[in-house]
Amino acid sequence: MTAPGNGGARYYYDGQAQKFFCTKPVAGREEPEFFNMVDLKVDVVESFALSEKLRIMEGESSFIVEIPRLQVSDKISVQLMFLSRFPGIVHEDDIRLVVEKQADAHGFVLDKMFAKNSALNPMEPYWEEFKFKTIQYYLEIYTGLQGIALKLIG
Fold it and tell me: How far apart are CA 70 and CA 68, in angstroms?
């Protein structure tokens, strides 16, 4: 959900198999490559089956839904909501400024900031939990609207 909109990858949930997967374009080929939820390439047999499911995705009996990406504005809002839990943190204004300039890139800018600034280390476990619960919330809302039961374990 946090992948850039211009990256070419598309993300899906297969309600029948209860698995997430993604497709990535391959230069010079019409068919994309398939990857599982941990970004490992899917074998040929499963790729064929997923390809067939995608062909009928628009039908009423499809169990496949495409998972939308968060817009840049959504990513900014999520991060600012998290930061609002920590008023007066070290370099608060600088952190907020960087968050407000979030680019259309993979992940959240806060992830990069935690990796670079050891002064923020005490906040990182709270960020990881907040991020997981927020993404879980978005997925449950979206898949619920699509009539797919989803339960993520954290």
Answer: 7
